[in-house]
């Protein structure tokens, strides 16, 4: 896939500014996963982008764990691909609901209009851009270019408006950037009989 034409400019907008943009985050986060990914090693490992494109990273680039701040948002996000392609919601099932405690020190909040303005990233780009269409044309979307640039800065994650549920919020975590004492800890391990 061809890298977005603005990738270098996006990285330049972030360079040297991360310390001015970051804040801490400490709360529970949620996601729905397929049953085959419910081991402790898989649930929040962020391996999804290694195998499939997502709103914030193109396939094969970096690790990222997509989570939500509310269970309803996590479910809407889990159903988003199925609905995009017009399949019934039942095609997404079964799903397992999982929760983690995120304690991060370096998070950028893209819900903040002043931060988005500094980065030249609009709320509508975050929530309305058809990144799947861009990918079918062999192009990295601008949101994927931002995800790549954010990960490269060393931030542990970022908050952003949900594209699947209008009043929802997602937390995207970069597992490879977590440094002690920050953590993304599973609160309840899935145990199958």
UniProtKB/TrEMBL annotation:
InterPro entries: RES_dom (IPR014914)
Domain of life assignment: Bacteria
Start and end residues of each RES domain: 43-184
One Pfam match: RES
Name of this chain's protein: RES family NAD+ phosphorylase
UniProt source species: Coraliomargarita algicola
